[in-house]
């Protein structure tokens, strides 16, 4: 998948992000790895997260992308990714994504999903009681 470029902001070196705590639209430096939300004053992770091993049960929140690699089994309550999620292993969580959610041919995603789009490769599994596909809500 290709990371979407944010063209809404003309200032070089800056881009819009959405705080996953309060939903505020803020401008952050492109080179920043984390950022403090000026509205709710909580920290926001901007880096991509890659889960390579099983047993991850902590928070998975970022304004970047989340990758669940093959042989990784991740069970957590909620996952938020601003730019999308790619599941090649197993992810059991309620998912909220500001980009596409991709489930690979041997991937499994179980839980509620809210995303801009969903792609399931042949052989992939999606078990969700609620699926909401559409543009980001402001």
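Q: What amino acid sequence fits the structure above?
A:
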């Amino acid at each position: 998948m290709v990371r979407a470029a944010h063209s809404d902001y003309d200032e070089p070196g800056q881009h819009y992000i959405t705080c996953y705590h309060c939903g505020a639209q803020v401008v952050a430096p492109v080179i920043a790895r984390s950022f403090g939300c000026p509205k709710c004053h909580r920290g926001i992770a901007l880096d991509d997260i890659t889960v390579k091993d099983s047993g991850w049960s902590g928070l998975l929140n970022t304004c970047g992308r989340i990758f669940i690699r093959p042989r990784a089994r991740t069970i957590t309550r909620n996952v938020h990714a601003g730019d999308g999620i790619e599941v090649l292993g197993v992810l059991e969580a309620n998912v909220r994504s500001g980009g596409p959610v991709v489930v690979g041919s041997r991937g499994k995603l179980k839980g509620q999903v809210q995303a801009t789009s969903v792609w399931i490769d042949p052989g992939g599994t999606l078990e969700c009681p609620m699926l909401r596909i559409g543009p980001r809500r402001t």
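Q: And what stands out in the fold?
A: Residues 104 and 114 are 18 Å apart (CA to CA).
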